[in-house]
User: Which sequence fits this backbone?
């Protein structure tokens, strides 16, 4: 059973990207956590109730639309929860490939349009979420703003090369989260801001790239969500601005 006891109260949790592989598993596990009062899930395509979700107390769930490529949609989403004091925000959205986008195997594949789209989605959008949702976050006691990053965003860990846009977008996200941790200390002294690497997880995002992943290193979304919520429960203020893997270890920039 997931515990978020370190927050010390019944939580209001927000998941941005509740329709995704990891996002929907996070929503299901937050709903089942006795420390959570309400889960507000935002998504572009709506939340579907899968097996895991169907066992959860759905009365604790609220769902709203959001399109992270539009700042006005992000602002509308935040305006829609203006009555709520939020304890935990998890941004679980992201893009690696789409109909028009492939992660680059070499420099020749780099293109301005796909680079901009990946940067906007993976780096800028989580910060626009922070911009519009931070005023709704609790100002005293533990509160947490995390965004799903990726180990490939670590500059010092880059041994394989490739994936220019995705790597750059996650490195940029990590810097933006660090910068936010510095600024938010003034208005929300106890807020913890962090990036989280979920491991390699069996979702639509990783599906085309799973061939060389050892089966024991490919997590189910539910397994990864459990690990991530454990990491969130263990975070304290000294961790703010950092990036942490699914097992709690810090990832160097
Ligand atoms: N899976 C892995 O192995 C892995 C590894 C390292 C890091 N990560 C990171 O973990 C995060 C989640 O990945 P995942 O594997 O769960 O991917 P996923 O299943 O493909 O989910 C991606 C999510 O992003 C949402 N999204 C995309 N464009 C959007 C937009 N314009 N507005 C609102 N939502 C949008 C999708 O919403 P719709 O479904 O509504 O389109 C979906 O909820 C990403 O940041 C990814 O980089 C994943």
Assistant:
């Amino acid at each position: 059973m997931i515990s978020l006891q370190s927050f010390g109260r019944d939580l209001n949790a927000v998941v941005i990207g509740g329709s995704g592989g990891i996002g929907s598993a996070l929503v299901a596990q937050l709903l089942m956590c006795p420390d959570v009062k309400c889960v507000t899930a935002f998504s572009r395509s709506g939340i579907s109730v899968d097996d895991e979700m169907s066992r959860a107390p759905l009365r604790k769930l609220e769902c709203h639309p959001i399109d992270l490529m539009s700042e006005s949609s992000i602002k509308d989403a935040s305006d829609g929860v203006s009555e709520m004091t939020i304890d935990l925000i998890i941004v679980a959205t992201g893009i690696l490939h789409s109909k028009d986008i492939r992660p680059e195997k070499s420099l020749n594949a780099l293109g301005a349009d796909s680079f901009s789209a990946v940067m906007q989605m993976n780096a800028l959008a989580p910060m626009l979420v922070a911009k519009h949702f931070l005023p709704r976050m609790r100002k005293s006691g533990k509160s947490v703003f995390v965004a799903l990053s990726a180990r490939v965003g670590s500059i010092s860990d880059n041994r394989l090369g490739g994936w220019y846009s995705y790597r750059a977008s996650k490195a940029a996200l990590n810097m933006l989260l660090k910068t936010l941790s510095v600024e938010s200390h003034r208005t929300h002294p106890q807020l913890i801001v962090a990036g989280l690497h979920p491991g390699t997880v069996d979702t639509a995002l990783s599906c085309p790239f799973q061939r060389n992943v050892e089966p024991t290193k490919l997590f189910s979304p539910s397994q990864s969500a459990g690990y991530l919520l454990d990491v969130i429960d263990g975070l304290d203020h000294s961790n703010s601005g950092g990036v942490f893997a699914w097992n709690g270890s810090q990832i160097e920039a």
Observations:
- The mean pLDDT is 97.
- Helices lie at 21-32, 51-54, 71-79, 112-133, 164-187, 221-234.
- The radius of gyration is 17 Å.
